[in-house]
Structure formats: C-alpha cells, structure tokens
C-alpha cells in the first residue's frame, strides 16, 4: 500500500458489504453486493495537465489498479484542463452515461457541491480525490496531510536560511497555489505556522491554475518591488511554480539562487535539486493515493463500505478519509526515497547534464 497512512493502521479495503449509507454515514454507497453490475463504470476526473503528476502518475496508476482488482470494470477518464465549466460538463455526461462511482479531483472544490448532489440523487458514490470538496457530504476523501506539507516546506526553507545565516536578513517570497484549490489554503497555513515571526515575508502571491508562467511573472514582480539582493528565499508550493520562479531569478541575473521549495517530486525538480538550483521538494506517494482510491471505488461498486481511519470536516460533514504522510526530500534524501521507491529510475534522472551531480549523490 505504500508508506505511512498518517499514523493509522492500514485498513483492508474489501471488508464485509454494508447496507444503507457509506462509511461514516455518507449518503452515496446505497447499492448492495447483489446489485453490483458486471463491468461497472468508474469515472475518474482530474483537474489539469500542467502539473506533471496527473497524466504521468495519477491516471495510469489508478487505471492499472482498477484493472487488477476488477477485470470487467471500465474507467471513464476525463481531464478538465483547469476549466471548471468543462469539468461540470464531464461529470454530468458521466452521470448520464451511467457511471457507477465518481472519483473527483475538482478544479474548483468549493463549487462542485451541486455536481455531488446530482450523484447523490442517483445514489452514485463519490470519492473526493486529492482535493477536499466542501459544502456537501459524500463517501470518502483520499489525500495527503496538506497542512503538514506546508509545515515541511516552511521548516526546510527556514533550516536552509539559518544554515546560510540569512534567516534574519532580507525577505522571502511566497508563491502559493491556486485559490480555487482548498489544498492551497492548507499548504499556506502550514508554511505560515513555521515562518511567521521567523522571517520577513516581502511578497506573497496566490497563483491561478498553479501556472508556472504566472509564478514566473509573480517572481519578476517581487524582484522588481523588493530588489534582487533583498530576496533571500522562496517558498513555492509546488515544483512547477518553483521552475517558473527560478526562470525569473535567472533572468534577473542571480549568480547564486536563494533556497527555494517545491512539491510533487517532478523529474525536472529532482534534477534541479541535484544540481543545486532548487533546495527541496515534497515527495508524495501518488501510487498509494491512486491505488487506495481505486480500491475504494471498486469496493463501492460491490456495495461495500470500507472503514476509514480518519474523518475530515469539510464545513458541512465529517468525511471518512485516508490521509498519507508527505516526505520532505533534499539532495541527500533522493537516493533513499525517490530512487529507492522507483518513482523514477536512476537512468531517467541522471541525464548527461546531471550525471556528475548524480555521482556525487551516490545515484547511479
């Protein structure tokens, strides 16, 4: 199952079938085991493709696990390209086509309650994937401890600044994620938990669509406003935006880049960490997240309601939840995490430009 469900024991998915509501009183899982359809349809909705993980990892891992557990099940896949209206059309089409379970990573998690309600009216279970849907009850939420992600990013940046002797000098720039993604607020909260009172935050941005291009523009604005020599660190909520911020700093003529954080362990970011352009990333066990969601979806097609080890309140209901632990990764941790888990092969990381840095890190 992958590492560390947030200090809870791993719970087997295929538990005894339950009648009535889903686990924890959620309204979706109302079918019985006897009514399972041969060749059930599981609809997977991902929010965008600018972030590498969705098409490279989430989708194929989810589809492979469903196939392994249910050879006759079909995965109906949609990517919304960061367009909430497009995702609404995709969900409504899947409901019309007779989807038996929805696994939804919402573009705008605060605005999809009406879609979840449509599924509830049809007695179709819903799993919120990666992003917590608010305003309505549903069956499950599968994600990471997002506040902890932000705390790890903030602590890593603070440690790097302290080691360089710059924590009390200059200012940092915070580049947060999309305001429509509730995870972004959690990352931001966690980072502020660590950084407030420890460093000066010169500029802070929320970045529409998690766009690396927009992050680059924001970083350029921050450098202009604060002065190049004043910026001693950058808290970037993910790797794609870190890449944009790094491009801005290079363009501004930095001879030495200040420490910058990231998340998702994108291949380009791992290479940047090895060469010293990026300080760290947050490694998320996407395999565990995708496979757990697939297991829950298949179980729900059988009328089963697996017990969840946690509950998360979304402002309206306590949602049964599976939360994974994030892992902070700096240069010295890549070999024993990302490479050891075969998230990437050493050959994929250690291209010609990175070969020497790989050797120094013991990656071959």
From TrEMBL:
<protein>
    <submittedName>
        <fullName>Sugar ABC transporter substrate-binding protein</fullName>
    </submittedName>
</protein>
<dbReference type="Pfam" id="PF13407">
    <property type="entry name" value="Peripla_BP_4"/>
</dbReference>
<dbReference type="InterPro" id="IPR025997">
    <property type="entry name" value="SBP_2_dom"/>
</dbReference>
<dbReference type="InterPro" id="IPR028082">
    <property type="entry name" value="Peripla_BP_I"/>
</dbReference>
<dbReference type="InterPro" id="IPR050555">
    <property type="entry name" value="Bact_Solute-Bind_Prot2"/>
</dbReference>
<feature type="domain" description="Periplasmic binding protein">
    <location>
        <begin position="42"/>
        <end position="304"/>
    </location>
</feature>
<keyword id="KW-0732">Signal</keyword>
<feature type="signal peptide">
    <location>
        <begin position="1"/>
        <end position="28"/>
    </location>
</feature>
């Amino acid at each position: 199952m992958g590492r560390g469900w947030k200090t809870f024991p791993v719970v087997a998915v295929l538990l005894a079938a339950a009648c009535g509501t889903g686990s924890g009183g959620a309204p979706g899982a109302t079918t019985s085991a006897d009514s399972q359809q041969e060749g059930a349809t599981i609809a997977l909705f991902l929010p965008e493709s600018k972030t590498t993980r969705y098409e490279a990892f989430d989708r194929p891992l989810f589809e492979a696990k469903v196939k392994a557990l249910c050879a006759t099940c079909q995965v109906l896949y949609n990517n919304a390209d960061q367009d909430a209206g497009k995702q609404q059309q995709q969900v409504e089409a899947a409901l019309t086509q007779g989807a038996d379970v929805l696994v939804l990573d919402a573009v705008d998690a605060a605005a999809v309650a009406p879609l979840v309600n449509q599924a509830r009216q049809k007695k179709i279970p819903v799993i919120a994937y990666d992003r917590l849907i608010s305003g309505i009850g549903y069956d499950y939420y599968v994600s990471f401890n997002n506040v902890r992600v932000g705390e790890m990013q903030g602590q890593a940046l603070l440690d790097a600044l302290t080691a360089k002797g710059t924590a009390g000098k200059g200012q940092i720039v915070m580049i947060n994620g999309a305001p429509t993604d509730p995870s972004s607020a959690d990352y931001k909260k966690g980072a502020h938990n660590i950084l407030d009172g420890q460093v000066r935050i010169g500029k802070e941005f929320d970045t529409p669509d998690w766009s690396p291009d927009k992050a680059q523009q924001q970083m350029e604005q921050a450098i202009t406003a604060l002065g190049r020599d004043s910026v001693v660190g950058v808290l970037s909520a993910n790797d794609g935006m870190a890449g944009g911020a790094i491009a801005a700093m290079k363009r501004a003529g930095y001879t030495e880049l200040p420490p910058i954080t990231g998340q998702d362990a994108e291949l380009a970011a791992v290479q940047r960490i090895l060469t010293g352009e990026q300080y760290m990333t947050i490694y998320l066990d996407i395999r565990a997240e995708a496979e757990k969601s697939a297991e829950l979806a298949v179980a729900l097609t059988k009328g089963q309601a697996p017990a969840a080890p946690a509950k998360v309140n979304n402002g309206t209901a306590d949602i049964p939840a599976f939360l994974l632990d994030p892992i902070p990764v700096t240069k010295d941790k890549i070999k024993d995490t990302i490479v050891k888990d075969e998230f990437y092969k050493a050959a994929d990381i250690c291209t010609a430009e990175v070969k020497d840095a790989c050797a120094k890190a013991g990656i071959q």
